[in-house]
Write a structure and sequence with these properties.
Length: about 300
């Protein structure tokens, strides 16, 4: 039996989906791995070999440090548990606790534990996890897969014309306008596709269906059999991509897209043109990105996605 390891990642859906690349690589090489994350536990049947645990409180740090040989911690300023784990863990096990910084900034190299993982913001997170396992941990078996195992009764992309549209995210500032999503959905329908909003009942407009799911497990099954996903920069894009579903992502900034665009499956990312000024203090492109991505531009992106999808 290899070392016992714990992976502590952020609690967003996308963070959890991507961090499983690290857990999966460790498990593939004979490590016993527990992944700590509060969002993806209800999908456990999709990765039964990678146990997911809920985050403990800060008082559990001493027990955690005595339970594993290695610790992989995604840095999180807002988590008291993570801050205490890093402080005490680096004191007791400086080489066995690795801190991983995930944000798109050239200043990332100045972080105190940057050399632990050497994240490259110009590469997708999933690829960064693969490179971390190869270049830093020197694991002999390497994969970019996060270990998803689809149920045998499901058929991948069974409904090729079904386009799942996820029009929301964790923050309103990341959301493309409602009226543009609706216009895009209507155009998809006119072109012979079957658009379905993955959101609340308020999105069921103009005869377009809207679906919600009581569990992530059921959502996974629905996405796995869908043809495409269109959405904002959000966790659902990473989930769909990990399930092998082509994704179209609408994002406000190319630097964010380089790091956080879904990358398990070939996809298309739409961002405002780089010709639009983004001077510090004004940030015209960042502040008004929703205006600079038209419905026509999104549709052309979807056409490219269809052409490149297998």
């Amino acid at each position: 039996m290899g070392p016992r390891a714990a992976v502590f990642c952020h609690n967003g859906l996308g963070d959890g989906v991507v961090s499983l690349v690290l857990s999966n690589n460790l498990q593939l090489n004979g490590w016993a791995v527990d992944t700590y994350q509060n969002a993806i536990g209800s999908m456990q049947t999709w990765f039964p070999h990678l146990p997911v645990m809920s985050y403990p409180g800060p008082e559990a740090v001493p027990k955690i440090l005595s339970s594993y040989d290695w610790f992989f911690v995604f840095q999180n300023d807002s988590s008291e548990f993570v801050q205490r784990l890093i402080k005490e863990g680096k004191h007791r096990f400086p080489d066995q606790l690795k801190v991983i910084y995930i944000y798109p900034s050239k200043h990332i190299v100045n972080e105190p534990y940057y050399l632990d993982a050497q994240i490259d913001p110009s590469l997708p997170v999933a690829e960064n996890m693969r490179l971390f396992c190869e270049k830093i941990l020197h694991l002999p078996k390497i994969t970019k897969s996060n270990g998803f195992i689809p149920p045998a009764e499901l058929e991948h992309r069974k409904y090729r014309k079904r386009v799942a549209i996820h029009p929301t995210s964790s923050r309103d500032g990341k959301n493309w306008p409602r009226e543009k999503f609706v216009k895009l959905a209507l155009h998809l329908r006119d072109e012979g596709y079957e658009p379905v909003f993955i959101s609340g009942a308020e999105w069921a407009v103009h005869g377009i269906e809207s679906r919600t799911f009581p569990t992530l497990d059921l959502l996974c099954s629905y996405l796995y059999e869908s043809g495409y996903l269109i959405g904002n920069d959000s966790g659902l894009g990473h989930l769909a991509s990990a399930l092998g579903v082509p994704t179209l992502t609408l994002s406000r900034r190319k630097a964010l897209a380089n790091l956080w665009a879904p990358s398990f499956q070939k996809g298309v990312v739409i961002t405002p043109s780089s010709w639009i000024p983004n001077i510090r203090g004004f940030r015209l492109r960042d502040r008004h990105w929703k205006k600079f991505i038209s419905v026509k531009k999104a549709w052309r992106g979807f056409e490219r996605l269809v052409q490149t999808a297998v």
